[in-house]
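RECORD TYPE: inverse folding
INPUT: structure tokens
STRUCTURE:
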């Protein structure tokens, strides 16, 4: 991680009376943040997992315990609101308590009591969180003082909510269709489960629509009048999320908050479409430039290294859930300042959370550097090899076994009737075909490196990737991903980061990615010979066909 002098923002781009948001003033803002138990900052993966768990528990209670499908689905949607959309809890909590009260006579008292306690406790936590927003806003306005300015590109079209609006409509329609077709399910339990899913999808659709409206409303409000301005420092992390620091935190030691930003190029959508296509419908000269720009952005995301620290002006008072505009120095010094609009709400970081975030980034970068050193040393010290090969190991076999076990369990749990309806047989066949296509790759993938490039096995046979076309080789979470010009390939296997760090172990995907990255960057480390056809691996489709036929035979006997 490099913390050189921040990239400077031109003086002419800084509004008059714009104050520095110094660490002292930022500390007062951070002191106004609520405690962690108010669900101030919950990871999306955790929010999704908890919401899914609540949905499964609600569906089980509806099918076996007699809970109304509306209440069961509403509880799962309410959990999502508590973790990700607290503004809606004020309407969801009373409605859910009313539903529990009306059905209390037909439910065990313990179920009603536990449900009511969870709703009331989470409601109180959200109330504390929302009340703290006022104190955050007050501290931000006090730090800005009289400094205000009109946001740049204020006449640009408001794009906030353009994704969530159609998504919400589609999910809402799916929910309605699920409810309309609920009577077509075979058993009463299946019908109740269908109604739970219908209400849940409807709730998700409405949540997306309300989120789109809130984001657009706040973005429009930010443009109407001059907004408070503050001088800050910003930096993009390894995943592309923007971190905001105090103006005097030159070493970027403690981020104040994070926010997802998107840029606007100032041209209309119609102009963009015209530039990418000629009058005869063929790709225009800018189509290639657009593809190159996309490749550049993907390279930046896959780089796994935080961007440089840059001077910036923050338009809009920051608080939990706020909309902001950031005018920052571009990473290319020859380019004008970059204007970016928030594509998501401001997500504050407590002082301890900010320090932990930086510590994790430093540890990850040090681990990456160590892996690169080990990979380079292993390649340099090794005698020149004509060909290098990597193939699936025991972790990949475990992943394949888990996939098969999951498919068998899901099929057994949902399709145990004596006579399966046709739609269930079709769903079981689709699950089997998916497994037949994925299991061979997990069991028998192979990457072969020679002096011309890489040979990557697939269902149709090995694919050749020249060294110059390789864009990145990264391990992200459970996945090893190889990306080259115009395409990519990936495979996943179990991983336990804590255990690896504790025992000093290196995951096979980390070692492979580090070695291939070293070869990609230094031609002297690449193999010296040409691989033969047997060394490149065989097509995997015969194994997929065998698995698909075996699954089809099982369905014929079963059905």
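DESIGNED SEQUENCE:
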């Amino acid at each position: 991680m490099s913390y050189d002098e921040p990239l400077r923002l031109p003086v002419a781009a800084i509004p008059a009376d714009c104050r520095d948001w110094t660490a002292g003033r930022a500390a007062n803002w951070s002191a106004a943040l609520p405690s962690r138990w108010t669900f101030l900052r919950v990871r999306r993966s955790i929010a999704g997992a908890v919401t899914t768990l609540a949905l499964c528990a609600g569906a089980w209670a509806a099918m076996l315990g007699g809970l109304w499908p509306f209440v069961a689905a509403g509880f799962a949607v309410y959990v999502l609101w508590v973790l990700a959309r607290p503004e809606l809890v004020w309407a969801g909590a009373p409605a859910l308590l009313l539903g529990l009260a009306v059905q209390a006579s037909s439910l065990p008292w313990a179920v009603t009591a536990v449900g009511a306690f969870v709703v009331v406790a989470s409601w109180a936590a959200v109330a504390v969180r929302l009340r703290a927003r006022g104190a955050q806003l007050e501290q931000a306005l006090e730090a800005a003082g009289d400094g205000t300015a009109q946001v740049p590109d204020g006449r640009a079209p408001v794009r906030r909510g353009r994704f969530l609006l159609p998504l919400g409509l589609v999910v809402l329609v799916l929910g309605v269709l699920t409810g309309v077709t609920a009577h077509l399910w075979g058993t009463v339990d299946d019908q109740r489960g269908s109604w739970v899913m219908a209400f849940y999808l409807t709730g998700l659709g409405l949540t997306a629509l309300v989120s789109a409206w809130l984001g657009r409303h706040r973005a429009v409000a930010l443009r109407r009048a001059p907004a408070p301005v503050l001088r800050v420092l910003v930096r993009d992390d390894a995943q592309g999320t923007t971190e905001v620091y105090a103006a005097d935190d030159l070493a970027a030691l403690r981020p104040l908050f994070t926010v997802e930003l998107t840029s606007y190029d100032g041209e209309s959508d119609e102009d963009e479409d015209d530039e990418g296509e000629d009058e005869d419908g063929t790709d225009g000269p800018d189509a290639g430039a657009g593809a190159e720009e996309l490749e550049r952005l993907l390279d930046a995301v896959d780089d796994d290294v935080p961007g440089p620290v840059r001077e910036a002006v923050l338009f809009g008072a920051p608080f939990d859930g706020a909309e902001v505009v950031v005018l920052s120095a571009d990473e290319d010094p020859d380019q004008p300042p970059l204007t970016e609009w928030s594509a998501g709400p401001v997500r504050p970081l407590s002082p301890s959370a900010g320090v932990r975030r930086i510590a994790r980034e430093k540890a990850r970068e040090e681990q990456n550097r160590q892996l690169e050193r080990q990979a380079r040393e292993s390649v340099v010290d090794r005698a020149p090899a004509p060909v290098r090969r990597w193939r699936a190991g025991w972790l990949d076999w475990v992943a394949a076994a888990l996939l098969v076990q999951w498919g068998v369990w899901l099929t057994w749990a949902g399709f145990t009737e004596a006579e399966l309806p046709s739609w269930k047989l079709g769903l079981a066949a689709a699950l089997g075909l998916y497994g037949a296509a994925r299991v061979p790759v997990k069991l028998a993938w192979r990457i072969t490196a020679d002096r011309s490039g890489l040979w990557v096995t697939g269902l149709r046979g090995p694919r050749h990737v020249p060294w110059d076309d390789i864009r990145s080789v990264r391990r992200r979470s459970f996945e090893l991903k190889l990306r080259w010009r115009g395409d990519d390939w990936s495979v996943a296997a179990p991983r336990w980061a804590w255990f690896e760090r504790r025992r000093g172990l290196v995951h096979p995907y980390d070692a492979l990615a580090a070695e291939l990255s070293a070869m990609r960057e230094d031609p002297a480390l690449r193999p010296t010979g040409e691989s033969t056809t047997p060394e490149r691996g065989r097509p995997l489709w015969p194994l997929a066909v065998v698995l698909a036929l075996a699954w089809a035979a099982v369905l014929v006997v079963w059905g």
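NOTES: The chain has 16 helices and 17 strands.
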